[in-house]
Amino acid sequence: IIKISNLTKVYDGSANEIVAVNNLNLEFEKGEFAAIVGPSGSGKTTLLNMIGGLDRPTSGEVNIDGQDIWRLSSRKLTDFRLKNIGFVFQSYNLIPVLTAGENTEFIMQLQGKPRNERSRRIKELLEAVGIADREKSRPNKLSGGQQQRVAVARALASKPTFILADEPTANLDSKSTETLLEIMELLNKTEDVTFIFSTHDARVVKKARRVITLVDGKVESDVSK
Amino acid sequence: IIKISNLTKVYDGSANEIVAVNNLNLEFEKGEFAAIVGPSGSGKTTLLNMIGGLDRPTSGEVNIDGQDIWRLSSRKLTDFRLKNIGFVFQSYNLIPVLTAGENTEFIMQLQGKPRNERSRRIKELLEAVGIADREKSRPNKLSGGQQQRVAVARALASKPTFILADEPTANLDSKSTETLLEIMELLNKTEDVTFIFSTHDARVVKKARRVITLVDGKVESDVSK
Ligand SMILES: Nc1ncnc2c1ncn2[C@@H]1O[C@H](COP(=O)(O)OP(=O)(O)OP(=O)(O)O)[C@@H](O)[C@H]1O
Ligand SMILES: Nc1ncnc2c1ncn2[C@@H]1O[C@H](COP(=O)(O)OP(=O)(O)OP(=O)(O)O)[C@@H](O)[C@H]1O
Ligand SMILES: [Mg+2]
Ligand SMILES: [Mg+2]
Description:
Two copies of one chain form a homodimer. With about 220 residues, chain A is α/β, with parallel strands linked by helices. Chain A has helices at about 45-50, 75-85, 100-110, 115-130, 145-155, 175-190, 200-205; strands spanning about 1-10, 15-30, 35, 60-65, 65-70, 85-90, 160-165, 195-200, 210-215, 220-225. A six-stranded mixed sheet of chain A has the order 6-7-8-3-9-10, with helices on both faces. In chain A, helix 4 packs across helix 5 (about 145-155). The longest helix of chain A has 18 residues, at about 175-190. Chain A is globular and about 45 Å long. The two termini of chain A are about 20 Å apart. The relative contact order of chain A is 0.19. The interface of A and B includes residues 38, 40, 146, 149 and 167 of A. One adenosine-5'-triphosphate sits at the interface of chains A and B. One magnesium ion (MG) binds near residues 45 and 198 of chain B.
């Protein structure tokens, strides 16, 4: 249901052009649990950002459920993202003036979900990731790993169709990582949520059912277990 | 040469107090290569920040080479840090308007090191961490792992007596991590630079010669290999 064709992203470097993603072709089906791995700078974040409607491709297509998302008007793309995509950013991108709870409920608010459903969902998720007692804390009062868990809770809270998670366990200890992966696996199996991770973490790769290796913006290997 | 006595840090949480570091005692000798591990939220960053003169303790002492650093005037503490401590921050804290090269040379400039020595050192380090070709790029043009490597290069460039590195490999692939650890080991062995890491990364723990485990702000175990 995600069909990526000839996808390319070129950045203007200060010295020369940087081809971050290079004429890439890839397909994902509903309910996948896939990990994208590769060296630092190989294009993982750029690829996720293009799939997630956050970074416009230089050329090529991202087709989601038959919709070429980059042909949508920016309003319709924002709307599509809101309805369908949950994103965990590599540097969390939490809103500094909102508490952990408010950050988590943010997307659900934009989606117009009713208040009691939102409060229930916030409690549920912050508890699941082990930081329920910090619901009222702002991001600058939280440790790196606690912020990362809020970022994950935010992406999961709205139960989107797809979750794109950019290195969601980078600042987490083994126990927190294990817990997070269990929550994600559960969502994946019971609600058919599609998960695409970018990761350097061997523990995440182990759980993934498909491992795509990127090198210099190209797919070097694509292995399904 | 680092003597930590009864060190405590209490934060005012929104609901109640948070005892981030709890009456901790610890000693480090010159030339150590030690890793501090423990669950997310266990106090690793807080501890490093107090050792590094960045976060004032609630009570207790940090004594470095006989100097109780928290008794120094803020000017003398800043000066002490500049001369002796290299810090790699968990979220890099690069200066957004400076390029990778300028970020790397920043501390050396403050230390008044001559221009040719600075340029040589920048090239040397950016090359060592594999991003020499991005010297002229600002942080927002770099991948997460590239930014992390600039943060490391910056800490190493001024050849400080101590390097406090807060999860320096969190966003790095295996190869970059290995390279980084080799550079650090070399500095440690040839120049007696003391390294204290906070980490969740099994590869870093493996290289460390001493592993200190923190749980709820206390030392749970302290093992030298
Ligand atoms: N400014 C602050 N105000 C309130 N609480 C804080 C503040 N800074 C840190 N804390 C809390 O102190 C505890 C220890 O935080 P610290 O950042 O030292 O943990 P950590 O071991 O580095 O965690 P991680 O592995 O997630 O980076 C956490 O519960 C954190 O939320
Ligand atoms: N805005 C930009 N301008 C110029 N170059 C960029 C920009 N954004 C990313 N790049 C470059 O594109 C390449 C791919 O970056 P990307 O962030 O996708 O890598 P990554 O695989 O996520 O790396 P990491 O594992 O370090 O997070 C890198 O060389 C990066 O420096
Ligand atoms: Mg990335
Ligand atoms: Mg930390």
